[in-house]
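About this split. The held-out portion is used to measure sequence recovery: a designer receives only the structure tokens and must propose an amino acid at every position. Recovery is the fraction of positions where the proposal matches the reference. Here is one held-out target exactly as it appears in the evaluation file.
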């Protein structure tokens, strides 16, 4: 009886040892899964931080885009204002050089200079009438007394 009881106890101890080994293996497996879960959680936390940083960068870039768009709109408005304010204006230096050049040009070619001045001023052939020619001749006469003036046909 003692040996049967001893055998029974040995078998019971063996079963408990086997159960303990299974539980240790299960614990190791669960610990491994827990470590993986912690690693995944850390990775997710890092990704969340990176996402937050990227969202901040996107917002900053949107602000920069908005600022640059405002600067572009302002520059375009200034450009259009400048175009509108200079539209129809004649370059004074150019006209002065043409005017002075008129007097340095041989008499038989002066009509070409006057024609060029008229086209720069926006006067087309139909608007360069004899009265226009006379006005220009008077202007020239007032600025250069004693100038030899021919008729209105010198402009055409």
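Reference sequence for scoring:
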């Amino acid at each position: 009886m003692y040996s049967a009881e001893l055998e029974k106890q040995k078998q019971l101890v063996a079963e408990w040892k086997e159960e303990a080994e299974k539980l240790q293996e299960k614990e190791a497996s669960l610990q491994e899964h827990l470590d993986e879960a912690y690693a995944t959680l850390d990775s997710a936390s890092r990704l969340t931080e990176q996402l937050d940083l990227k969202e901040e960068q996107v917002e900053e870039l949107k602000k920069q885009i908005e600022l640059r768009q405002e600067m572009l709109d302002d520059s375009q408005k200034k450009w259009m204002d400048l175009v509108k304010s200079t539209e129809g204006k004649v370059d004074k230096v150019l006209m002065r050089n043409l005017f002075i050049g008129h007097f340095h040009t041989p008499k038989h070619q002066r009509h070409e200079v006057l024609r060029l001045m008229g086209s720069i001023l926006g006067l087309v052939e139909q608007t360069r009438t004899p009265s226009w020619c006379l006005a220009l001749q008077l202007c020239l006469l007032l600025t250069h007394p004693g100038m030899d003036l021919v008729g209105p046909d010198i402009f055409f």
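Annotator remark: Residues 1-88 form one domain.
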